[in-house]
Amino acid sequence: MKLQAKILESVDLKVGNESQSIIVQFLEDKDKQHFEVWFHNFDPYRNGLRKWDIWELSIKFKSDVFTDPKTLKKSYFTYLICTKANPIIRMGL
């Protein structure tokens, strides 16, 4: 799914192969919610994602189910994973 998003927080420079995330606001969202988007295949800092830029993000969903061993109650977690990003508007240029 391709969604246009405004970068709301600066992207930190990370060293190593760890996954990174950014906080975005999707342009079509009337509630102006903030979402965390994870990057596994590329470094958002090195690819030029900067605060206030608008990018088109290719998003995939990943779900984890956690079962509490004591209560056996399940909790569901959904992650937004960005597989590709293309700049739309770059404020710093």
How would you sum up this structure, described in words?
The protein is an all-beta fold and 93 residues long. 0% of the residues lie in helices and 52% in strands. The protein contains no helices and five strands. It has strands spanning 2-7, 20-26, 35-39, 54-67, 74-89. A five-stranded mixed β-barrel has the order 1-2-3-5-4. Strand 2 and strand 3 (35-39) form a beta hairpin. The radius of gyration is 15 Å and the shape is globular. 16% of the residues are buried.
What's the quick description here?
The chain has strands at residues 2-7, 20-26, 35-39, 54-67, 74-89. It is mainly β and 93 residues long. A hairpin with an 8-residue loop joins strand 2 and strand 3.
Descriptive terms for the model:
93 residues; single chain; 5 strands; five-stranded mixed beta barrel
Please describe the topology of this protein.
Elements: E1 2-7, E2 20-26, E3 35-39, E4 54-67, E5 74-89
Parallel strand pairs: 3-5
Antiparallel strand pairs: 1-2, 1-4, 2-3, 4-5
What is the averaged pLDDT score? 89
Q: Supply the number of helical segments.
A: 0
Order of helices and strands: EEEEE
Helix content: under 10%
Number of strands: 5
Biggest sheet descriptor: 5 strands, mixed, barrel
- How far apart, in Å, are the first and last alpha carbons? 27 Å
Radius of gyration: 15 Å
**Unreliable residue runs:** none
Percent of residues in beta strands: over 45%
| Net shape | globular
Record the strand order, biggest sheet: 1-2-3-5-4
Q: Helix- and strand-based class? A: mainly beta
